[in-house]
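Weekly puzzle thread! Below is a chain. First person to post its structure in token form gets bragging rights.
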Amino acid sequence: MASLRDIKGRITSTKKTSQITKAMEMVAASKLNRAETNAKSFAPYMEKLRELIANIAARKQDDHLVDEENLHPMMVTRPVQKTCYVVVTSNRGLAGAYNSSVLRSVYQTIMEKHQSPDEYNIVAIGRVGRDFFRTRGMDIIHEAVGLPDQPSFYDIKELAGQVVALFTDGEVDEVFVYYNHFVSAISQVVTEMKLLPLEQVKQSEGKKVVDYTFEPNPDEVLSKLLPQYAENLIYGAILDGKASEEAARMTAMKSATDNANELIGDLSLTYNRARQAAITQEITEIVGGAAALG
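Winning reply:
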């Protein structure tokens, strides 16, 4: 059995650990409020942008101007020879299964879908994901590490532009984004989003086409909006991922704090029993010594 000093030392160190995890839980909870607000406030803007693009596409279709030759290059589906995976992870650990779940999902997809490393490349957003793929010798074509906890669009604009250019320049034929979608403080879902080609910008069934006036013309407007829309989809995924990260870290630190407190209780019980046994032993020895002298 461990000595009383050893048990007391473990109690002290576990209490210090619980104080740290509790502080980290409170910090994560504070960051989560802002991250959740950022993610949710960005959604209406993206929906309106999507509706505008869908409206332009629908008008062109009504005017019989849409066929494969008239489609914007970002909306054209072509034979897939190479795929790009944009993977959103965190820069730090201690976030439960936040990183491992998304990395497991994309890694399994790559292993099942591709026979050769020449068939895919990776854009890693977050140090954990970057290190994961680099350790396995996988092709990381672009990376972004050290993004702030509350990133602005300008923090990722260059990277987002590079991702869009990969598709428009013909270097890849499709682009997928993998990230954790924020559902609630205790629920985050690994999500695969097909970024390019843009197939989701279609007019909703039965929705009336608004008669906008476009200057100089719808094609010019569409050529400006589509790259912006794709770049903002990446930004939205990062905002969503940041909210999920803080929620996962808050939950993980709460669990760690609860476990530490439970361990402190068990150790305290063990310490008290060992101390009582030591006292009983001392009394027994004293009584036995006194009896022998008598």
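Puzzle host: Confirmed. Bonus trivia for everyone else. The mean pLDDT is 88.
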